Amino acid sequence: MAEITAQLVSVDRLLWKGEANIVTAQTTEGEIGVLAGHEPFLGQLKQNGVVTITPVDGDKIVAAVQGGFLAVAGNKVTVLADYAVLADEVDSNAAESERESEDPTQRARSEAELAALRRSGK
Question: Helix, strand, coil % (nearest 5) of the chain?
């Protein structure tokens, strides 16, 4: 399978960069899958969405994202999220308790984190 260079970046850090077979992301227009040779594209990430990257080597990467953009140009896909956390970094107990938070931003983040955990199968 052909490879595409991918990177997952949040406002405060680079979460992952490397060669991937496919990148999928939930956008405001629906879920999109990006393979090598994809047409140029710019999409807005879903507010409480999930991004999945299947690297050429290694385990699938799943991240919870809030806002931001997905850009495809040439043989490169960039996910630039306002907020992102890898499913492996999520504390499910904390996310469950924060689901009831009165802060709408925190509540939304916990929903996205729990969705990423479900998608990752962990």
Answer: 20, 50, 25
Extract the tokens encoding 113: 């984190």
Taking CA atoms, 17 is separated from 30, 61, 101, 103, 112, in Å, by 24, 11, 32, 32, 21
Between the CA of residue 44 and those of 17, 22, 25, 65, 104, what are the distances in Å? Answer: 20, 18, 10, 11, 20
pLDDT digits (tens, 9 = 90+) for 72-107: 999 999 999 999 999 888 777 777 777 776 777 777
- pLDDT tens, position by position, 1-27: 789 999 999 999 999 999 999 999 999
Q: Is the pTM of this model over 0.70?
A: yes
Q: Which residues contact 102 (CB under 8 A, 6 or more apart)?
A: none
What are the residues whose beta carbons fall under 8 Å from the beta carbon of 117, sequence distance 6 or more? 62, 87, 90, 92, 95
